[in-house]
């Protein structure tokens, strides 16, 4: 059974790390959101990861990264962002394999032309090691990514939502472009069995980039 880590259980170092995260976010979003909104997003992001984390050391950092993504999404939804780049959201069940590989390819190819996010209906505890290894083979590092849920503001801020097997759990908001990619789930597979899924995802991502008017800026090693 996964232990739930409450903020009241934090060590002094963890409390300081969370306070530093709040300061960082307040500095970045000072002209967009008030302190209460920023801290609410940070703390709810922390609670999301704390509910299923087995190692609490990196919780403040994960919370800061996720809160930053959510605040950027909220700014876009509320018309407070000047970032007009297309945003693509990749969704699968565990946000551990397919959607992480897709985001890895998209970010690698698109560079600063577009934004990619990912999420899962039932986020896993870590990114699938076979997916990490398969992506490393083509020169893309997704080892620092982490499974995370989607939130309403993240889905609403996306221009394109790519779903991969999350079924009825996938969120639907009007005005988004939705596309379902039918791909085998690499959960439980070894690297050899994951490679064909990786290569299929690469092909689909290249096609998607063309659809949104972005040009692949980099190649990958095969």
From TrEMBL:
CDD domains: LMWP_ArsC. Residues 86-211 form the Phosphotyrosine protein phosphatase I domain. Its EC number is 1.20.4.4. Keywords: Arsenical resistance, Oxidoreductase. SMART domains: LMWPc (SM00226). GO terms for molecular function: arsenate reductase (thioredoxin) activity. It is an enzyme of class 1 (oxidoreductase). Gene3D superfamilies: 3.40.50.2300, Corynebacterium glutamicum thioredoxin-dependent arsenate reductase, N-terminal domain. It comes from the Bacteria. InterPro entries: Phosphatase-like_N, Ptyr_pPase, Ptyr_pPase_sf. This is Arsenate reductase ArsC.
């Amino acid at each position: 059974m996964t232990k739930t880590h409450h903020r009241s259980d934090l060590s002094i170092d963890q409390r300081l790390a969370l306070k530093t995260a709040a300061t960082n976010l307040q500095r970045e979003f000072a002209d967009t959101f008030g302190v209460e909104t920023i801290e609410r997003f940070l703390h709810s992001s922390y609670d999301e990861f704390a509910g299923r984390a087995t190692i609490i050391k990196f919780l403040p950092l994960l919370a800061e990264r996720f809160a930053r993504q959510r605040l950027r999404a909220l700014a876009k939804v509320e018309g407070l962002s000047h970032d007009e780049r297309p945003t693509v959201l990749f969704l699968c069940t565990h946000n551990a394999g397919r959607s992480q590989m897709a985001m890895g390819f998209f970010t690698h190819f698109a560079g600063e032309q577009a934004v990619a996010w990912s999420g899962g209906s039932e986020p896993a505890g870590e990114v699938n090691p076979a997916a990490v290894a398969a992506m490393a083979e083509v020169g893309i590092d997704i080892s620092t990514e982490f499974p995370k849920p989607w939130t309403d503001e993240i889905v609403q801020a996306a221009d394109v939502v790519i779903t991969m097997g999350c079924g009825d759990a996938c969120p639907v908001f009007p005005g988004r472009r939705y596309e379902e990619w039918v791909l085998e789930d690499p959960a439980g597979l070894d690297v050899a069995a994951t490679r064909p899924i990786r290569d299929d995802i690469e092909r689909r991502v290249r096609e998607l980039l063309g659809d949104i008017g972005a040009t692949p800026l980099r190649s990958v090693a095969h």
